[in-house]
Design a protein that fits this description.
It is globular, with a radius of gyration of 18 Å. The chain has 2 domains: 127 residues, D-Maltodextrin-Binding Protein, domain 2 (3-Layer(aba) Sandwich), CATH 3.40.190; 98 residues, D-Maltodextrin-Binding Protein, domain 2 (3-Layer(aba) Sandwich), CATH 3.40.190. Helix 1 packs across helix 8 and helix 1 packs across helix 9. By secondary structure, the protein is α/β, with parallel strands linked by helices. Strands 1-2-11-3-12 form a 5-stranded mixed beta sheet, with helices on one face. The protein is 37% helix and 20% strand.
Length: 252
């Protein structure tokens, strides 16, 4: 089977072209190093768990909760992207709590115990981080709606299907870049920062780290801005593995 290369985590219509151009630069840099690399990114199921678990995985990006629950020991971390997110060290991100502007909520305490939308149970930013944050604050958390993706969680809040959600900070930045419904939402709080979504491989990570550094440096400024990609950070696997694993969501 050909090698798998994917960038599914932040691959929406407005970012696909930039992701394709990033991969083309990375592919060519790998080939210059004598490494085999597919011509184009893979999209669909192989961009997620099916591809992450494949021995043919050359390059992808995963969430930290799947990494610590299912992937550690099967994949290697290449590096972690630095998205230059407000309030976060290099290579870190956080979840932002969003609520409907028309409801007038201004703090997490205002919404705790109301209907919470989450993208999926195996999401760090959408479930694990808010679960740990609510627990630490002694606040109630009732996951009443599973949406399948962060953007869908934000839409669920904007349209009144849920009262609030936790959206990863980069996804929220892209929603603000491209979606008019962002105007219906307010950020009312955030979780503590944690390591961002790592680039992973089932192969030798060393040439990928070299090639990825070259590719990001060569990427056009407009594409870097579209992807909010500033560079790379080296975050050890232990920083991911030391984060707690939450229980599965249970409705009230």
């Amino acid at each position: 089977m050909p090698h798998i290369a994917a960038l599914g985590m932040y691959d929406r219509a407005e970012t696909m072209g930039a992701n394709d151009r990033l991969w083309a630069l990375l592919r060519d840099a790998l080939r210059d190093l004598g490494q085999d690399a597919p011509d184009a990114l893979t999209r669909g199921d192989l961009a997620y768990m099916q591809g992450w678990l494949s021995p043919d995985l050359l390059f992808s990006q995963t969430c930290s909760l799947p990494y610590r629950v299912k992937l550690a020991g099967q994949v290697k971390i290449i590096a972690t992207p630095d998205y230059d997110l407000e309030g976060c060290p290099a290579g870190y991100y956080r979840s932002l709590y969003v609520a409907r502007r028309s409801d007038g909520f201004t703090t997490l305490e205002d919404v705790a115990g109301l209907d919470f939308a989450y993208n999926e149970a195996l999401s760090h930013s959408g479930w694990a981080a808010p679960y740990a944050d609510h627990l630490a604050r002694g606040l109630a958390l009732y996951p009443t709606l599973r949406t399948g993706e962060h953007r869908a969680s934000a839409i669920a809040v904007a349209t009144g299907r849920a009262d609030y959600a936790a959206i990863d900070a980069l996804t929220w930045a892209m929603i603000c870049d491209h979606d008019d419904f962002a105007n219906k939402l307010n950020v009312i709080g955030h979780t503590p920062p944690s390591p961002a979504l790592p680039y992973i491989t089932a192969k030798d990570p060393a040439p990928l780290r070299i090639a990825l550094t070259q590719a990001i440096a060569a990427l056009a400024p407009t594409d870097r801005a579209t992807l909010h990609l500033r560079g790379l950070a080296d975050i050890p696997a232990l920083a991911y593995l030391s984060l707690p694993i939450p229980p599965a969501p249970v409705d009230r």
